[in-house]
Design brief:
2 domains; alpha+beta; 60s Ribosomal Protein L30, Chain: A; 33% helix; four-stranded mixed beta sheet; six-stranded mixed beta sheet; Phosphoribosyl-aminoimidazole Synthetase, Chain A, domain 2
């Protein structure tokens, strides 16, 4: 019996089709590695540090599959990653992606890559390449996974760690566009299993379908944050509100003797979170541990910088959501 790779579940012809489709987005595709010229950039730094992060979009992919819409998750992974490293003060340079499939679907791959390219162009990031893997037997039929590694750069003495945060400092928050990339396992259980909705269900409180609400693109905050840093604003700490919500993420940048006091009601809770809480009768503590609750990134500045920040970011929505108080590296809500 004659055997070949396609009979084993890996279709090389489809792989070639994927390459053909995405070549219009990535003309240099095909080499064994991605190249990025650092020579011009390094001239602007005295002691440059590279900052890297790797992550995925989690079970938001399940919703993308239900909607048969994959371009937004390509944007999500880039924007999520850029936020992770700008939290340390870094400017994003390159993004490297990895997409795994049970079976290659050229249309799906094209949508994912198109989303990545769109996000990279908007943020001034070089998409240096990536890898596509077809792995029958490892992934269930129709399943995909997306991961990405981002690399950025920051001057050593401008790395943001949170160690400069002091009692009395002001906490600002940027609004989120929705769930971003966290909390989808609970959201899916509540919306689909408990409430009995599907992605096409139109919910008056949302003003759109369930699927549309769940696929809102993760906001990228690196532009306004870098504008503050470039102007010399003393941003003392930044927390990207991802998995773990307020309760787990903000303490990551707090000194051990300080708490973040967050004032509820200082920003609008998005309808999707109110709906989820109502469906599952989820306590506040769990909501703020699981979801971003309408705030995608927080940053801390000295009280003296409050008005300057508000003036500089008047073109963006930001909210003063709290302050730093004495404590034990926790988040307190009032």
């Amino acid at each position: 019996m004659k055997s070949d790779y396609a009979q084993a579940g890996v279709d090389i012809d489809k792989g070639e089709e994927v390459v053909r489709r995405i070549k219009k987005y990535l003309p240099d595709i095909g080499s064994f590695g991605g190249l990025f010229d650092l020579s011009g950039i390094l001239k602007s730094y005295k002691r440059p540090f590279l900052v890297q992060s790797i992550d995925g979009v989690g079970t938001k992919l399940t919703v993308a599959k239900m909607m048969n819409k994959y371009d937004t998750v390509g944007e999500d992974i880039v924007n999520h990653s850029a936020n992770d490293i700008v939290a340390m003060g870094a400017r994003s340079l390159t993004f490297l992606d990895y997409v795994a499939n049970e079976k290659l679907e050229p249309d799906v791959m094209e949508q994912i890559v198109a989303g990545m390219v769109r996000a990279c162009k908007e943020a001034g990031i070089a998409l240096v390449g990536g890898e596509t893997a077809e792995m029958p037997g490892t992934y269930a039929p129709g399943e995909h996974d997306i991961a990405g590694c981002i690399t950025g750069i920051v001057e050593k003495d401008k790395i943001i760690t949170g160690e400069k945060i002091k009692e009395g400092d002001v906490i600002f928050g940027f609004p989120s566009s929705g769930l971003h990339t966290n909390g989808y396992s609970l959201a899916r259980k509540l919306l689909f299993d408990v409430a009995g909705h599907d992605v096409s269900t139109q919910v008056p409180e949302l003003g759109e379908s369930v699927g549309e609400a769940l696929l809102h693109v993760h906001t990228n905050y690196s532009g306004p944050v870098l504008s503050l840093l470039g102007a010399g604003v003393d941003v003392r700490g930044i927390a990207h509100i991802t998995g773990g919500g307020f309760i787990e993420n903000i303490p990551r940048v707090l000194p051990k003797n300080l708490d973040a006091e967050i004032r509820k009601g200082t920003w609008p809770i998005l309808p999707i979170f109110s709906l989820l809480q109502e469906i599952g009768k989820v306590p506040d503590s769990e909501m703020y541990r699981t979801f971003n609750m309408g705030i995608g990134l927080v940053f801390v500045v000295a009280p003296a910088d409050k008005e300057r920040v508000e003036k500089m970011l008047k073109g963006y929505k930001i909210y003063g959501i709290g302050k730093i108080i004495r404590g034990e590296k926790r988040v307190k809500f009032i």
